[in-house]
Each structure stands twice: as structure tokens, then as C-alpha cells.
Amino acid sequence: MKRMGLAVLLGLCLTITAQAAGLPDGSAKSAILMASDGTVLYESNADESLPPASVTKIMTMLLTMEALDEGRVQLTDMVTASANACSMGGTQIYLKEGEQMTMDDMLKSIAIGSANDAAVAVAEHLGGSEEGFVNRMNERAAELGCTGTTFVNPNGLDTDGEQTLTTARDLALISRELMKHEKIYDYTTTWMDTVRGGAFQLANTNKMLRQYDGMTGLKTGYTSAAGFCISATARRDGMDLIAVVMGEPDKESRNADITAMLNYGFAGYGMVPILSETDVLPSSAVALGKKDRVSAALADDTPVLMRKEQAGTVERTIRMEEQLSAPVEPGTKIGEVVLTSNGEEVARRDILTAEQVEKKGISDIYRDLLRFLLMKS
After folding, report:
1. By CB atoms within 10 Å of each CB, which of 194, 210, 331, 355 scores lowest?
2. What is the DSSP-derived secondary structure letter of residue 184?
3. Backbone angles phi and psi of 319, in degrees to 5
4. What is the spatial distance between Cα 157 and Cα 120, in angstroms, rounded to a whole number?
5. 3-class SS at 164?
6. Predicted confidence (pLDDT) per residue in 206-250, tens digit
7. Edge-to-edge order in the sheet of strand 215-223
């Protein structure tokens, strides 16, 4: 009885959330709209574990991009297809056992063409085995705070009674991390490309690239068990949003719900800079320094997400130390910028020294004294 009451209460909360957001009831089993800073702008049943189909590949792409950024692999590295990789069904590029492709072409095939065989080939290349890579997928999911995710392979196919399960919230968290690797957009925003020297054509499975202004990716997915799923990212006016839906009955419903969520986010929210166009961080005086003053910079200049009606009320206060004593190391905190709206603090950023200032030695002080005396005479 308690469980039934909780379920009814949860349903009411979700309905209220949808109405409060100004969004119509969608067709998805689960949905979430998240800003790139992690702020959730809308959610509906976002923590139910469901099959994501090929949206699984966002984790495969994330681990690949991290390996590239860390220098463990290069885009020019050759990836060899195993018999296991070639045995994958569904969408594929029809790899042959022993066939080699560059990591770049494999990544294209995954991000653009959603190739299941390429996903396994890359997984084996990076993880030593598919199992080793899947273990890392689950470890990385836990590191990102995913609580409802269990990966069983790198492509999202259901095999041998096993099924990858995840949540809309977890997919948004993984997508958010992948978005930090700007290089991935070279693939996820590409409409068409080829591999095998132009012999095999790839067409992006995310048709919303040409249907929604600002769409940047990331990955679609479909199986009969999962329904139509997508983790969609879009950028407008310097603001990145992530919209995830799972379990949609058809493509049209999936695209309509994603469009409604993204429109809601872009219409209601914006990014407010830490400093206005007229704000200038002053330099600070340095006592006994080889330079009289030290320049300043923000420790973090990432704009703040706010509702648009709130953005016009923002006031900024800059507080800085007027004088420092040498030596001064770069990165030393010397002040803060505080943003308030209607008397409430909305953001605070440290101000740091932007350079090193060495302390004057005896000879420097002597020269200064001599220069002073000569000017007086």
C-alpha cells in the first residue's frame, strides 16, 4: 500500500513538473533536459533504468576521446577487426576479420553511422578485450555519478539474455562529459562521410542535425525493446543543452519531444558573463617588487546559467587587495567577483594574480635610491 501511494505521489510530482516547465506531456518513458553546467531544467521519470540501444555508444566515444587526449592512442593508429567484432548484427560497416582501419575512420563509423562492429573493434583495441573495455565503461559511469547504469557491451545490442540498462539522467551526465571534448563535434555534426577510401558511405543517424537550429549531436538509438532514444545536444548563444528521451514510440514523437525540451531551455535561460563588457579587473600594487603592479585574471570565467528574466537584475561587485608584498606567485588569490540578483548571491569567482613578481634585491633597492637622489638633485 505504501509503495502504491509513493508511485501515485511520484506520478503527481512528474505531472506538476511538466506543467510548471510549460512543456506538454511527452511520449517518452523517461526524459531530462540538462544544461552543460549540470543544472537540470526539466525531468520526467529520469531515474528509471531502461535500455538505451545505440545511445550506449556515447560512453564508447567518451572513453575513446579520453584515450586520444591522454595520448594513449592516435587518430592515425590502425585498429584491427577481430572475428568477434565482425560478428555484430544491426547497423554496421561490415568489417571483415583482420581488416584494418584508422582510429579516425572507426570513430567516424561509430559517431556518424552508429556501426556496432566498429564499436567493438575500438573497444577491443582500447581495452585489450571487449570485456576489459566494458569493465572500464562501468567504472567510468560510477565515477561520473551514474547510479542506474550497467553496460554489457560497447554498442547497446541485446545479447545472450543480457541487456544494457541506464537512465535518462545518467545518459545526460555521460553526454555532458563527452561534450568537454570539442573534437567529438567534428564527427557528431557531420551529415555524411565515407570510409575505406570513399568506398563505403556513412549517413548520420541523427536527422535532427538538419531539423533543429544549433543541433550538435550526440547519438540516436533504436531497438524494439528500447524504443526510439536519443541524447541530443544543441548550442545557441554560447549555451549548451542536453536533452535525453528514452522509450519513445516512434521517431516523430522522439523529435517532437526533443524539440519542445530544447525550445523551452533556450527560450527561458541564458548564460550571464562573470564580468560585464565594461568591467575591468584592476592591477594591484606590489611593495618591494621588481614590478610596481601585478595584473589580475579570473580563476574561472565560465558564464552563469540564469533564467532570462533574472539576468537583467544582476549586479557585480569586485573586491580586491589594493597592495601585495613581493614575491608574488602567479595564481595567488587577491580578490573576488560576486554576482547578486535581487539581493541574493548567484555566483562568486576568485580573482588571481596573472603573473610572477620577484622581490627586489639589495642591488635593486640601491639603484632605486640612487635614481631617486639623482632626480632630487
Report:
1. 210
2. G
3. -120, 125
4. 11
5. coil
6. 999 999 999 999 999 999 999 999 999 999 999 999 999 999 999
7. 40-44, 30-35, 239-248, 227-236, 215-223
